[in-house]
């Protein structure tokens, strides 16, 4: 294999001889002891590392416990980017929280609450204006305590430039969304807990005071509504307004009218309705309040109120409540009816609710229209439902891309903001029901921070809180800014059932930080029939591997599906294995990429690429770096190399509609790995089958294929000629335990298993090794340890999980020296790199993107920045910087022209004092959004159009 050897001197006695295949039956395997290292230089390296921060680089000589290893990882912290030349970007994106979006600034901007940040978007352009990070997650590596979450975000009614954010541990923040100032803890609730929050402005005798209503949990686990008064919220006075009588009755929903006079809430068994009146003086705010509670028919998971003024000057409180079993309950003038219960019998009325029922599962969100004649609801059916209150007639907007989590009616009532559980939000016009704004982040599987509303009641199915498998992802070498991530039809659909589903491929542009497209690569289920007759969600296939060819023109994918265990309950035990064999689906697919945003075209599909008497699991997929070839490794102990050829029929080349020759893919080389055979053959011989795993990688010149394959602790790496399929040699003791990844940086073979090992193939000795934690976090370490190499900078990155955090490190294979280390407070689910640009891209289970790259490399992968960071967000920050109308601009230009009567005076104008031209943002949007990128005019035409906007109009004679 080409590539220079490291200049380090080595002791010949410690070199391990490669094993010739011909000697396989003549002599027993010879394994290397972990302590067998190069004598002098091994000790010298240990001395060099004595003061190194990465003390766990122990050359595999120490047997550290998990706690000791994690303690070393915690000590690592983050390296100084200035000293190493490498840097880790700030996280971008995230998972949208189950919190209502907020329209601000006359509906020009939309505030979205993410699990880790607040993000402000322009409604007209769908562009990110500002990202405000929130210190929600503690930056710990092996934290074992529950992570706090954001529970509510409310706009201030006294100062619309601020929003209030409540955290589940009782922290309440006041944030200026226009300036994006640093977040500080304004105050903490008395109980150090918060379930929900609502903000109101109560008018007093002298002024209007802001009041924050917080639903808390007492020490006796009772629900409590507490009011906190302004204007000084550093240590605000508070008053408990209502406390539940029973324990374990937390108030999980809390809503208040803007004037603070009416409060409604919900517990698991009851609804709460209260009225608050102000007794204000010049010094403080006193509240008089009256609360009522009554049993609810269902567990309530959505609430909204509408205030109607009557002719007699009184107000009617209309309440709608969405149940966890799909029903909607409408309580007309509920407060008056509750108050009359304590009055004479003649005025008493039954608390009878009008019932509307269409949703099959929980009502996720429910809102009144502005006029109170309609209500809007949404749930897991992927359908937006509009209800006419008088007649009960329904209108539907079906086939949305995910289940509806939140609905908001804009202040003017002209738009709906709809948050879907596929991590997207759209703004719909109420007149045409067409989207005017679309905001989407990374849609890969993410960790649940709260219980899904569908599971508030007992179901026949369940949803996992954590991501169970790493998320396949890839960067297209032809378009390094495009990240392709495997995803599903929604967060709940991906994590429901026995296996994590992901039949879709999302294309995400990191430069503009926007989702480009989403394409089905495997069998998907229509949104209207996505559950069985017994209520179980229909499981979808999971894409397990993706890889692009070296020129980016081909994409290879592997998807896997097998019947869920519930389908085997009524089958005889002796017939279950045969039933699974017949119904399991494993497909290898080859897709031809297209220019622009066109979907990929399926070129070939291989059914069961690795098969014995049953379809075998595809353990690994790799692409050749020099030609359009792919290699797969299966659990049948076979490696197959796939190549394309021109498709012909009767000797005539087949072509597509554009005249391009069609290609078909087939296996060109098949290699059996030693005595390894399929799992069914081992069972026939009476051998005990154990879980086998593997990884493959082409050498940098494409001449050699390296395969790590076997059961636990086999440790063998097979070296195969990629042209002939001949097994050249076998390297023993190259990995331990479960092999996760094998990568090549000539002349080094890097393996990630229960430890990390860097092996010099030319010198035939171990360069160094790193111990990884196992045992307590064994499943997480097994699934979410990542390894990726950057051939441009000749570095590799490794990720080690711990708890719900991860430690990322970048190193060179020559020496065990850290170039960069970063503690990520989330579990990394994907780590990718590309050969056309340097650096790495990581995706975590909070749907955030991180990039790691050399700071001085102009070709490194980069992420889009908010408009604020690029100084392009003038409107929301400086209100005085208003773009003038066209007529006013022309008048000003005429005035300036009239003042310049003397030509000599014009020559004396100082260029430094010239005012820059101001371009109306709408004109720029019309210019650049006129057509898709592939249909845009030439660069020269666009240049003249932009300069035409900058140029001053000629004066009339």
TrEMBL record:
Region Disordered, annotated ranges: 1-47, 887-913
Q: What is this protein called?
A: WD domain-containing protein
One MF term in the entry's GO annotations: RNA binding
Q: Which organism is it from?
A: Colletotrichum sojae
The record's Gene3D superfamilies line, in alphabetical order, gives: YVTN repeat-like/Quinoprotein amine dehydrogenase
Task: Report the PROSITE patterns cross-referenced here.
Answer: WD_REPEATS_2, WD_REPEATS_REGION
Q: Where are the WD repeats?
A: 356-397, 611-652
Where in the cell does this protein reside?
Nucleus, Nucleolus
The main place the protein resides is: nucleus
Give me the stretches of Basic and acidic residues compositional bias: 10-39
**Domain called WD repeat-containing protein 75 second beta-propeller: residue spans:** 542-823
Superkingdom, taxonomy of origin? Eukaryota
GO CC annotations, alphabetized: small-subunit processome
Give yes or no: UniProt keyword Transcription: yes
